[in-house]
Protein: Methyltransferase domain-containing protein
Amino acid sequence: MVVVPAHHPSLITAHLLLSMSACRPILKVPPMHHPTTPEANIPAERRPGHWVLAELGKKVLRPGGKELTETLIAALPLRGADVVEFAPGMGMTAGLLLAQQPATYTGVDRDETAVKTVTAAAAGAIPVTVKQASADATGLAAESADVVIGEAMLTMNNDKQKQAIMQEAFRVLRPGGRYAIHELSMVPDSVDDSVKTQLTKSLAQAIRVNARPLTHAEWKHLAESVGFHVVGEYSKPMALLEPRRMIADEGLRGMATIAKNLLTKPALRRRVLTMRSTFRTHRDHLGAIGLVLEKPATT
Ligand SMILES: C[S@@+](CC[C@H](N)C(=O)[O-])C[C@H]1O[C@@H](n2cnc3c(N)ncnc32)[C@H](O)[C@@H]1O
Structure:
Protein backbone atom coordinates (compact mmCIF):
# COMPACT_ATOMS: atom_id res chain seq x y z
CA MET A 1 0.00 0.00 0.00
CA VAL A 2 1.28 3.51 -0.83
CA VAL A 3 1.11 5.81 2.16
CA VAL A 4 1.39 9.47 1.22
CA PRO A 5 1.93 12.05 3.93
CA ALA A 6 -1.04 14.43 4.12
CA HIS A 7 1.31 17.41 3.65
CA HIS A 8 2.94 16.12 0.44
CA PRO A 9 3.12 18.99 -2.13
CA SER A 10 1.42 17.03 -4.98
CA LEU A 11 -1.44 16.07 -2.71
CA ILE A 12 -1.87 19.62 -1.47
CA THR A 13 -1.66 21.12 -4.99
CA ALA A 14 -4.20 18.70 -6.45
CA HIS A 15 -6.51 19.10 -3.50
CA LEU A 16 -6.33 22.89 -3.66
CA LEU A 17 -6.97 22.93 -7.39
CA LEU A 18 -9.94 20.62 -7.08
CA SER A 19 -11.27 22.67 -4.17
CA MET A 20 -11.22 26.00 -6.01
CA SER A 21 -14.43 27.49 -7.34
CA ALA A 22 -15.32 25.98 -10.72
CA CYS A 23 -16.47 29.42 -11.89
CA ARG A 24 -13.25 31.31 -11.18
CA PRO A 25 -10.58 30.66 -13.83
CA ILE A 26 -7.17 30.94 -12.24
CA LEU A 27 -5.16 31.35 -15.44
CA LYS A 28 -6.23 32.45 -18.87
CA VAL A 29 -4.39 29.92 -20.99
CA PRO A 30 -5.84 28.86 -24.35
CA PRO A 31 -6.93 25.20 -24.42
CA MET A 32 -4.35 22.85 -25.93
CA HIS A 33 -5.22 20.26 -28.53
CA HIS A 34 -4.07 16.70 -27.87
CA PRO A 35 -4.90 14.59 -30.91
CA THR A 36 -3.55 11.49 -29.16
CA THR A 37 -6.46 11.54 -26.69
CA PRO A 38 -9.61 9.85 -28.03
CA GLU A 39 -12.52 12.14 -28.92
CA ALA A 40 -10.38 15.26 -28.31
CA ASN A 41 -12.40 17.00 -31.04
CA ILE A 42 -15.54 16.92 -28.85
CA PRO A 43 -15.95 20.11 -26.73
CA ALA A 44 -14.77 19.62 -23.12
CA GLU A 45 -18.29 19.99 -21.71
CA ARG A 46 -19.58 17.02 -23.72
CA ARG A 47 -16.53 14.77 -23.90
CA PRO A 48 -16.78 11.36 -22.14
CA GLY A 49 -15.38 11.68 -18.62
CA HIS A 50 -12.72 9.01 -19.08
CA TRP A 51 -11.20 10.86 -22.02
CA VAL A 52 -11.28 14.14 -20.04
CA LEU A 53 -9.23 12.39 -17.36
CA ALA A 54 -6.91 10.88 -19.98
CA GLU A 55 -6.27 14.31 -21.47
CA LEU A 56 -5.34 15.59 -18.03
CA GLY A 57 -2.73 12.83 -17.88
CA LYS A 58 -4.67 10.33 -15.75
CA LYS A 59 -3.67 6.82 -16.74
CA VAL A 60 -5.78 4.69 -14.40
CA LEU A 61 -9.38 4.99 -15.60
CA ARG A 62 -11.04 2.17 -13.68
CA PRO A 63 -13.09 2.59 -10.49
CA GLY A 64 -11.17 0.29 -8.13
CA GLY A 65 -7.78 1.74 -9.05
CA LYS A 66 -4.53 0.04 -9.90
CA GLU A 67 -4.66 -2.01 -6.70
CA LEU A 68 -7.80 -3.86 -7.80
CA THR A 69 -6.28 -4.41 -11.25
CA GLU A 70 -3.20 -5.95 -9.62
CA THR A 71 -5.38 -8.19 -7.45
CA LEU A 72 -7.16 -9.47 -10.57
CA ILE A 73 -3.90 -9.97 -12.46
CA ALA A 74 -2.56 -12.06 -9.57
CA ALA A 75 -5.59 -14.36 -9.93
CA LEU A 76 -4.96 -15.04 -13.65
CA PRO A 77 -2.68 -17.69 -15.17
CA LEU A 78 -0.86 -15.26 -17.46
CA ARG A 79 2.62 -16.68 -18.04
CA GLY A 80 2.73 -18.42 -21.42
CA ALA A 81 -1.02 -17.77 -21.93
CA ASP A 82 -2.93 -16.37 -24.89
CA VAL A 83 -4.39 -13.19 -23.42
CA VAL A 84 -7.17 -10.99 -24.77
CA GLU A 85 -7.96 -7.58 -23.32
CA PHE A 86 -11.32 -5.99 -24.05
CA ALA A 87 -11.15 -2.18 -24.17
CA PRO A 88 -7.49 -1.52 -23.31
CA GLY A 89 -8.10 2.24 -23.57
CA MET A 90 -4.76 3.98 -23.02
CA GLY A 91 -2.87 0.71 -22.47
CA MET A 92 -2.24 0.85 -18.73
CA THR A 93 -3.28 -2.75 -18.04
CA ALA A 94 -1.70 -3.95 -21.29
CA GLY A 95 1.71 -3.02 -19.83
CA LEU A 96 0.99 -4.95 -16.61
CA LEU A 97 -0.20 -7.99 -18.58
CA LEU A 98 2.84 -8.01 -20.87
CA ALA A 99 5.13 -7.88 -17.84
CA GLN A 100 3.72 -11.31 -16.88
CA GLN A 101 5.13 -12.77 -20.13
CA PRO A 102 2.06 -14.18 -21.83
CA ALA A 103 2.54 -16.08 -25.11
CA THR A 104 0.42 -13.53 -27.00
CA TYR A 105 -1.55 -10.35 -26.25
CA THR A 106 -4.60 -9.25 -28.26
CA GLY A 107 -6.36 -5.96 -27.48
CA VAL A 108 -9.83 -5.15 -28.78
CA ASP A 109 -11.10 -1.56 -28.50
CA ARG A 110 -13.76 0.18 -30.56
CA ASP A 111 -11.91 3.49 -30.42
CA GLU A 112 -9.40 4.14 -33.21
CA THR A 113 -7.08 6.38 -31.16
CA ALA A 114 -7.04 3.86 -28.32
CA VAL A 115 -6.04 1.14 -30.78
CA LYS A 116 -3.16 3.28 -32.09
CA THR A 117 -2.03 4.22 -28.57
CA VAL A 118 -2.00 0.63 -27.30
CA THR A 119 -0.34 -0.66 -30.48
CA ALA A 120 2.51 1.80 -30.00
CA ALA A 121 2.78 1.25 -26.23
CA ALA A 122 2.66 -2.55 -26.33
CA ALA A 123 5.21 -3.18 -29.06
CA GLY A 124 7.96 -5.52 -27.88
CA ALA A 125 9.17 -9.08 -27.81
CA ILE A 126 5.76 -10.71 -27.21
CA PRO A 127 3.41 -10.98 -30.24
CA VAL A 128 0.86 -8.16 -29.89
CA THR A 129 -2.26 -7.54 -31.96
CA VAL A 130 -4.60 -4.65 -31.28
CA LYS A 131 -7.78 -4.54 -33.33
CA GLN A 132 -10.57 -2.04 -33.67
CA ALA A 133 -13.82 -3.87 -33.00
CA SER A 134 -16.64 -4.05 -30.54
CA ALA A 135 -16.05 -6.49 -27.70
CA ASP A 136 -19.35 -8.21 -28.44
CA ALA A 137 -18.16 -9.21 -31.93
CA THR A 138 -14.36 -9.44 -31.83
CA GLY A 139 -13.90 -11.70 -34.84
CA LEU A 140 -11.44 -13.75 -32.75
CA ALA A 141 -11.50 -17.53 -33.14
CA ALA A 142 -13.58 -19.56 -30.69
CA GLU A 143 -11.59 -21.17 -27.85
CA SER A 144 -8.43 -19.27 -28.80
CA ALA A 145 -7.64 -17.59 -25.45
CA ASP A 146 -6.69 -18.69 -21.94
CA VAL A 147 -7.45 -15.35 -20.33
CA VAL A 148 -9.78 -12.44 -21.14
CA ILE A 149 -9.76 -9.25 -19.11
CA GLY A 150 -11.88 -6.11 -19.45
CA GLU A 151 -12.01 -3.12 -17.13
CA ALA A 152 -14.35 -0.13 -16.91
CA MET A 153 -16.11 -1.05 -20.12
CA LEU A 154 -19.14 -3.26 -19.40
CA THR A 155 -20.64 -0.48 -17.25
CA MET A 156 -20.79 1.87 -20.22
CA ASN A 157 -22.68 -0.67 -22.33
CA ASN A 158 -26.41 -1.35 -21.98
CA ASP A 159 -27.78 -4.57 -20.47
CA LYS A 160 -28.08 -6.34 -23.82
CA GLN A 161 -24.53 -5.35 -24.80
CA LYS A 162 -23.17 -6.34 -21.38
CA GLN A 163 -24.55 -9.83 -21.90
CA ALA A 164 -23.31 -10.01 -25.50
CA ILE A 165 -19.79 -8.98 -24.38
CA MET A 166 -19.76 -11.64 -21.66
CA GLN A 167 -20.98 -14.24 -24.17
CA GLU A 168 -18.16 -13.21 -26.50
CA ALA A 169 -15.61 -13.66 -23.69
CA PHE A 170 -17.09 -17.10 -23.01
CA ARG A 171 -16.90 -18.04 -26.72
CA VAL A 172 -13.30 -16.88 -27.14
CA LEU A 173 -12.04 -18.66 -24.00
CA ARG A 174 -10.80 -22.22 -23.98
CA PRO A 175 -12.51 -24.52 -21.45
CA GLY A 176 -11.06 -23.74 -18.01
CA GLY A 177 -10.07 -20.22 -19.16
CA ARG A 178 -10.55 -17.16 -16.95
CA TYR A 179 -12.31 -13.84 -17.54
CA ALA A 180 -11.61 -10.95 -15.18
CA ILE A 181 -13.86 -7.92 -14.98
CA HIS A 182 -13.40 -4.68 -13.02
CA GLU A 183 -16.45 -2.43 -13.04
CA LEU A 184 -18.49 0.18 -11.26
CA SER A 185 -21.04 -1.26 -8.87
CA MET A 186 -24.09 -0.08 -6.98
CA VAL A 187 -24.21 -0.91 -3.29
CA PRO A 188 -25.78 -2.52 -1.38
CA ASP A 189 -27.49 -5.33 -3.31
CA SER A 190 -30.78 -4.18 -1.79
CA VAL A 191 -30.43 -0.64 -3.16
CA ASP A 192 -33.79 0.92 -3.92
CA ASP A 193 -34.90 1.25 -7.56
CA SER A 194 -35.46 5.00 -7.14
CA VAL A 195 -31.82 5.38 -5.98
CA LYS A 196 -30.64 3.35 -8.99
CA THR A 197 -32.58 5.61 -11.35
CA GLN A 198 -31.29 8.81 -9.74
CA LEU A 199 -27.72 7.53 -9.67
CA THR A 200 -27.77 6.48 -13.32
CA LYS A 201 -29.16 9.89 -14.30
CA SER A 202 -26.56 11.82 -12.25
CA LEU A 203 -23.70 9.74 -13.66
CA ALA A 204 -24.85 10.31 -17.24
CA GLN A 205 -24.94 14.06 -16.64
CA ALA A 206 -21.56 14.20 -14.93
CA ILE A 207 -19.49 11.83 -17.05
CA ARG A 208 -21.38 12.25 -20.33
CA VAL A 209 -21.57 8.49 -20.75
CA ASN A 210 -24.60 6.31 -20.17
CA ALA A 211 -23.00 4.41 -17.33
CA ARG A 212 -25.24 1.68 -15.93
CA PRO A 213 -23.53 0.04 -12.97
CA LEU A 214 -25.07 -3.14 -11.53
CA THR A 215 -25.16 -4.37 -7.95
CA HIS A 216 -22.68 -7.11 -6.97
CA ALA A 217 -25.49 -9.68 -7.08
CA GLU A 218 -26.53 -8.49 -10.55
CA TRP A 219 -22.96 -8.63 -11.93
CA LYS A 220 -22.56 -12.17 -10.63
CA HIS A 221 -25.97 -13.22 -11.89
CA LEU A 222 -25.14 -11.89 -15.37
CA ALA A 223 -21.86 -13.82 -15.44
CA GLU A 224 -23.51 -17.03 -14.26
CA SER A 225 -26.34 -16.67 -16.77
CA VAL A 226 -23.72 -16.79 -19.53
CA GLY A 227 -22.18 -19.98 -18.10
CA PHE A 228 -19.26 -18.71 -15.99
CA HIS A 229 -18.43 -19.82 -12.45
CA VAL A 230 -17.46 -16.98 -10.10
CA VAL A 231 -14.07 -17.99 -8.62
CA GLY A 232 -12.98 -14.65 -7.16
CA GLU A 233 -14.87 -11.62 -5.92
CA TYR A 234 -13.32 -8.35 -4.73
CA SER A 235 -14.62 -4.91 -3.87
CA LYS A 236 -13.10 -1.47 -3.33
CA PRO A 237 -14.49 1.97 -2.63
CA MET A 238 -15.11 4.10 -5.71
CA ALA A 239 -12.39 6.69 -5.06
CA LEU A 240 -11.23 7.44 -8.62
CA LEU A 241 -10.91 11.18 -8.07
CA GLU A 242 -9.97 11.28 -4.40
CA PRO A 243 -6.44 12.70 -3.95
CA ARG A 244 -5.17 9.76 -1.92
CA ARG A 245 -6.28 7.17 -4.52
CA MET A 246 -4.97 9.38 -7.33
CA ILE A 247 -1.52 9.46 -5.74
CA ALA A 248 -1.61 5.67 -5.32
CA ASP A 249 -2.69 5.21 -8.96
CA GLU A 250 -0.65 7.84 -10.75
CA GLY A 251 2.41 8.28 -8.52
CA LEU A 252 3.81 11.63 -7.51
CA ARG A 253 5.15 12.45 -10.96
CA GLY A 254 1.82 11.62 -12.63
CA MET A 255 0.03 13.65 -10.01
CA ALA A 256 2.25 16.65 -10.74
CA THR A 257 1.36 16.40 -14.46
CA ILE A 258 -2.35 16.22 -13.63
CA ALA A 259 -2.05 19.17 -11.24
CA LYS A 260 -0.33 21.24 -13.96
CA ASN A 261 -3.00 20.34 -16.49
CA LEU A 262 -5.80 21.14 -14.03
CA LEU A 263 -4.21 24.56 -13.62
CA THR A 264 -3.96 25.32 -17.32
CA LYS A 265 -7.19 23.72 -18.59
CA PRO A 266 -10.12 25.32 -16.74
CA ALA A 267 -12.79 23.67 -18.91
CA LEU A 268 -11.45 20.21 -18.07
CA ARG A 269 -11.03 21.21 -14.42
CA ARG A 270 -14.73 22.15 -14.27
CA ARG A 271 -15.59 18.69 -15.63
CA VAL A 272 -13.43 16.97 -13.02
CA LEU A 273 -15.03 19.00 -10.23
CA THR A 274 -18.50 18.05 -11.43
CA MET A 275 -17.55 14.37 -11.69
CA ARG A 276 -15.94 14.32 -8.26
CA SER A 277 -18.87 16.10 -6.66
CA THR A 278 -21.29 13.57 -8.23
CA PHE A 279 -19.17 10.63 -7.03
CA ARG A 280 -19.09 12.16 -3.53
CA THR A 281 -22.84 12.81 -3.46
CA HIS A 282 -23.49 9.16 -4.30
CA ARG A 283 -20.54 7.65 -2.42
CA ASP A 284 -22.81 5.51 -0.21
CA HIS A 285 -24.19 3.77 -3.28
CA LEU A 286 -21.13 3.55 -5.53
CA GLY A 287 -18.37 0.97 -5.40
CA ALA A 288 -15.91 -0.96 -7.54
CA ILE A 289 -16.20 -4.67 -8.14
CA GLY A 290 -13.67 -7.16 -9.46
CA LEU A 291 -14.74 -10.64 -10.48
CA VAL A 292 -12.65 -13.56 -11.66
CA LEU A 293 -14.85 -15.86 -13.73
CA GLU A 294 -14.04 -19.32 -15.03
CA LYS A 295 -15.38 -21.11 -18.07
CA PRO A 296 -16.11 -24.70 -16.96
CA ALA A 297 -13.51 -27.20 -18.14
CA THR A 298 -16.29 -29.24 -19.76
CA THR A 299 -19.30 -27.43 -21.21
C1 LIG B 1 -13.24 4.04 -19.23
S1 LIG B 1 -12.24 3.51 -20.57
C2 LIG B 1 -11.37 2.19 -19.77
C3 LIG B 1 -10.10 1.84 -20.46
C4 LIG B 1 -9.24 0.80 -19.75
N1 LIG B 1 -9.87 -0.50 -19.72
C5 LIG B 1 -8.90 1.25 -18.36
O1 LIG B 1 -9.48 0.72 -17.40
O2 LIG B 1 -8.06 2.16 -18.20
C6 LIG B 1 -13.40 2.67 -21.58
C7 LIG B 1 -12.82 2.01 -22.83
O3 LIG B 1 -13.75 1.02 -23.25
C8 LIG B 1 -13.85 1.04 -24.66
N2 LIG B 1 -15.13 0.36 -24.95
C9 LIG B 1 -16.32 0.57 -24.37
N3 LIG B 1 -17.24 -0.26 -24.85
C10 LIG B 1 -16.62 -1.05 -25.75
C11 LIG B 1 -17.05 -2.11 -26.59
N4 LIG B 1 -18.32 -2.53 -26.59
N5 LIG B 1 -16.15 -2.69 -27.40
C12 LIG B 1 -14.86 -2.27 -27.42
N6 LIG B 1 -14.39 -1.27 -26.66
C13 LIG B 1 -15.26 -0.66 -25.82
C14 LIG B 1 -13.73 2.50 -24.99
O4 LIG B 1 -13.38 2.73 -26.34
C15 LIG B 1 -12.62 2.91 -24.01
O5 LIG B 1 -11.35 2.68 -24.57
User: Anything to note?
Assistant: The radius of gyration is 19 Å. The pocket of S-adenosylmethionine is lined by residues 50, 61-62, 87-89, 92, 108-111, 114, 134-136, 151-153, 156-157, 165 (CB under 6 Å). The first helix runs from residue 9 to 19.
